[in-house]
Amino acid sequence: MADRYLAIFFVSLSCLYRSFDASAGDVDPLYRACISQCEKTGCVGETCFTQCKYSVDGSFSDSQKEPLYRQLTQTDCSNDCKYHCMLQREKERAALGFGPVKYHGKWPFKRVFGLQEPIAVAFSAFNLAMHIQGWLSFFKLRSKTINKRISYDYAGLWHIWAFLSVNSWFWSVVFHSRDVELTEKLDYSSAVALLGFSLIISILRSFSIRDEATRVLMSAPLLAFTTTHILYLNNYQMDYGNVLISQF
């Protein structure tokens, strides 16, 4: 009897994983058919892409390699086909009175001046600017206190936190500008690193832990957990929604 319940549990868990692994948009047969046709012809409706001449079904034509800038930004035939097929399907769904659905775990944003999420880019850039300004202000404050021979035990920790914050918001700007696998991993990894260190510094500061050995003892488990979580995010294919759940 126990084996039977265990089997039911694993089957249910497998179904739950499958539901998380795909979104309603990217399992749509019409969306998939559009992508398949686009990758063969290089066109979605009347819109055609010059970059599709570089790759056809994963192979390069005329013995040409795909340009380096397209490899770095992943503005290749496959990605542009997915984007324009997504827009086409959303127009068709809207005409039928249906609301938008997610594609590959994300809502169907329309690019503006090449930016995938311009509003998110603007807010991330604003946060980046404020953190840079705050870090510079802390440098100025430290220079004044040093002249007065006043020490601050947590200065080094705050500098690390400031660096991680600037790094996190920088990659947030890049990720929302161009969502590809590399920028996604850098954005999520930077965010997790910042969250992990924020927890560490909040504990050390709240309990006024100044002894170096005690700091190491308190920080080591959290650093190990944060590092493990970053490795997990970077080595498993996860849906965007799952990543948010795992972080928060």
UniProtKB/TrEMBL annotation:
<dbReference type="InterPro" id="IPR007217">
    <property type="entry name" value="Per1-like"/>
</dbReference>
<keyword id="KW-0732">Signal</keyword>
<comment type="function">
    <text>Involved in the lipid remodeling steps of GPI-anchor maturation.</text>
</comment>
<protein>
    <recommendedName>
        <fullName>Post-GPI attachment to proteins factor 3</fullName>
    </recommendedName>
</protein>
<feature type="signal peptide">
    <location>
        <begin position="1"/>
        <end position="24"/>
    </location>
</feature>
<feature type="transmembrane region" description="Helical">
    <location>
        <begin position="151"/>
        <end position="174"/>
    </location>
</feature>
<feature type="transmembrane region" description="Helical">
    <location>
        <begin position="186"/>
        <end position="204"/>
    </location>
</feature>
<feature type="transmembrane region" description="Helical">
    <location>
        <begin position="119"/>
        <end position="139"/>
    </location>
</feature>
<dbReference type="GO" id="GO:0006506">
    <property type="term" value="P:GPI anchor biosynthetic process"/>
</dbReference>
<comment type="similarity">
    <text>Belongs to the PGAP3 family.</text>
</comment>
<keyword id="KW-1133">Transmembrane helix</keyword>
<dbReference type="GO" id="GO:0005789">
    <property type="term" value="C:endoplasmic reticulum membrane"/>
</dbReference>
<keyword id="KW-0337">GPI-anchor biosynthesis</keyword>
<dbReference type="Pfam" id="PF04080">
    <property type="entry name" value="Per1"/>
</dbReference>
<feature type="transmembrane region" description="Helical">
    <location>
        <begin position="216"/>
        <end position="233"/>
    </location>
</feature>
<keyword id="KW-0333">Golgi apparatus</keyword>
<dbReference type="GO" id="GO:0016788">
    <property type="term" value="F:hydrolase activity, acting on ester bonds"/>
</dbReference>
<keyword id="KW-0812">Transmembrane</keyword>
<dbReference type="GO" id="GO:0000139">
    <property type="term" value="C:Golgi membrane"/>
</dbReference>
<keyword id="KW-0472">Membrane</keyword>
